[in-house]
């Protein structure tokens, strides 16, 4: 896979471990280097596992056991502390995430809980202003109950981030692309600045929107890469999981201490489901982002304001492609009117109304009404989150079917005006007329 357009190949930041030649990572759980010494590419590593199973099972067995018999010194004794299915998954993920160590827990928010437990009262956190709703909620809790000082900054502006960094900055928490505004954050520059302000600062990147298939925050200078395994890694919306990747051994041990102490390690069956999902990550992601690119272009060509890093019109297109290998499959667009957006969302058939993303099925939502509803309206306004924004999470369905579904929804919702060669988004004045007539209808 290569960056589209004008981004020169191979010069991108953070692609040191570019997967054309594979990478030098711990085995998962057995060495995966072919005999001639050439390293496997990521698409191969995703499906390749070699285990020392006593029956040579092709699928890693589910060790559905809370305890393991035997005396002290044996590898496993209690599943809260360790389980062979979970270990297999963790080693497999470490390789895929370009991490020395990976840990898996019961959800993405569980991962952030583990990470933020290293914070002490008085510590400062510098983070974004377009965060995942759950992340925002947890940070608010830490602020009100644990005396953690949280600075919400527009992290797309490195200078603003620098101004907020001090020797008291204990953690920098980034998401890129953000969701649903699809803003891009310069991981490498911010990581460098954070470590300059405080060498002990932990830079943690939420990589959920792209997955390790498209972006490796650790290669860009982050200390922690974490993500919700509920999304792309598992891919079928049938399991919840959280994944943490680290290179620093001490940090890894501190996180493991928390997981063992609180018991949030991923259960054996869920570990197995996640292992199964990871095998198809490359085919799913390739298809999903190809579909997403076509849909983003379709909407843009019909006059909508679309946010997607695969579009040249994205203001941070070059930055995105300097640190990622793909655009992902989440995009958002605006209609100018909450009522119009609501009607569009209600008029699709293939795009299911649902929070979340990363699933093989296409989804549609209004973040202000759903995933981001936990952010109060005043804060949403302050952070310029348009109330009418529609988020599309594109799946692996047939592209023509998806575009036909979206087209009929736009027409039925009255979001477009018919033209000689198809349709076009309404102008601002037309949108205003639409909203007014809606109000009239509703009043009547
Ligand atoms: C879903 C999500 C999370 C939380 O993950 P869960 O598995 O739902 O707990 C965190 N960050 C982002 C960006 C997400 O999309």
UniProtKB/TrEMBL annotation:
GO MF term set: cysteine-S-conjugate beta-lyase activity; pyridoxal phosphate binding
Reactions catalysed, as given in the entry: an S-substituted L-cysteine + H2O = a thiol + pyruvate + NH4(+); L,L-cystathionine + H2O = L-homocysteine + pyruvate + NH4(+)
Modification type N6-(pyridoxal phosphate)lysine: residues: 231
The EC number(s) this enzyme carries: 4.4.1.13
InterPro entries (alphabetical): Cys/Met-Metab_PyrdxlP-dep_enz, Cys_b_lyase_euk, Cys_met_metab_PP, PyrdxlP-dep_Trfase, PyrdxlP-dep_Trfase_major, PyrdxlP-dep_Trfase_small
Region (Disordered): 1-37
Protein name, entry field: Cystathionine beta-lyase
């Amino acid at each position: 896979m290569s960056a589209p357009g004008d981004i020169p190949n191979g010069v991108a930041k953070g692609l040191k471990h570019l997967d054309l030649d594979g990478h030098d990572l711990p085995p998962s759980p057995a060495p995966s280097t072919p005999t001639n010494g050439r390293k496997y590419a990521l698409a191969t590593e995703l499906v390749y596992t070699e285990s020392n199973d006593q029956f040579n099972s092709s699928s890693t067995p589910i060790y559905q056991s809370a305890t393991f018999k035997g005396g002290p010194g044996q590898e496993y004794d209690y599943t809260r502390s360790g389980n062979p299915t979970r270990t297999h998954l963790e080693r497999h993920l470490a390789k895929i995430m370009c991490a020395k160590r990976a840990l898996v827990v019961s959800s993405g928010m569980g991962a952030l809980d583990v990470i933020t437990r290293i914070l002490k009262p008085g510590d400062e956190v510098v983070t974004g202003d377009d965060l995942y709703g759950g992340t925002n909620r947890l940070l608010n809790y830490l602020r009100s109950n644990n005396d953690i000082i949280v600075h919400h900054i527009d992290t797309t502006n490195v200078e603003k981030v620098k101004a907020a960094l001090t020797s008291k900055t204990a953690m920098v928490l980034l998401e890129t692309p953000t969701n649903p505004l699809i803003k891009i954050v310069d991981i490498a520059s911010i990581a460098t600045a954070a470590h300059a302000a405080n060498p002990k600062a932990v830079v943690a990147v939420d990589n959920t929107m792209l997955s390790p298939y498209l972006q490796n925050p650790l290669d860009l200078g982050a200390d922690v890469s974490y993500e919700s395994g509920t999304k792309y890694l598992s891919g079928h919306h049938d399991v919840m999981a959280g994944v943490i990747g680290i290179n620093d051994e001490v940090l890894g041990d501190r996180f493991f201490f928390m997981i063992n102490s609180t018991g949030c390690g991923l259960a054996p069956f869920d570990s197995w489901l996640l292992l199964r999902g990871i095998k198809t990550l490359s085919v799913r992601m390739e298809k999903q982002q190809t579909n997403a690119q076509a849909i983003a272009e379709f909407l843009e060509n019909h006059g909508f304001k679309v946010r997607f890093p695969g579009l040249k019109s994205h203001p941070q297109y070059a930055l995105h492609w300097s640190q990622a290998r793909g655009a992902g499959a989440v995009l958002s667009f605006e209609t100018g009117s909450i009522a119009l957006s609501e009607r569009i969302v209600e008029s699709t058939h293939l795009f299911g109304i649902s929070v979340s993303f990363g699933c093989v099925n296409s989804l549609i939502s209004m973040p202000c009404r759903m995933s981001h509803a936990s952010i109060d309206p005043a804060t949403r306004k302050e952070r310029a989150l348009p109330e009418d924004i529609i988020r599309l999470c594109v799946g692996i369905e047939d592209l023509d079917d998806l575009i036909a579904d979206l087209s009929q929804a736009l027409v039925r919702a009255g979001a477009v005006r018919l033209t000689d060669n198809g349709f076009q988004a309404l102008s601002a004045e037309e949108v205003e007329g639409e909203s007014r007539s809606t109000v009239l209808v509703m009043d009547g």
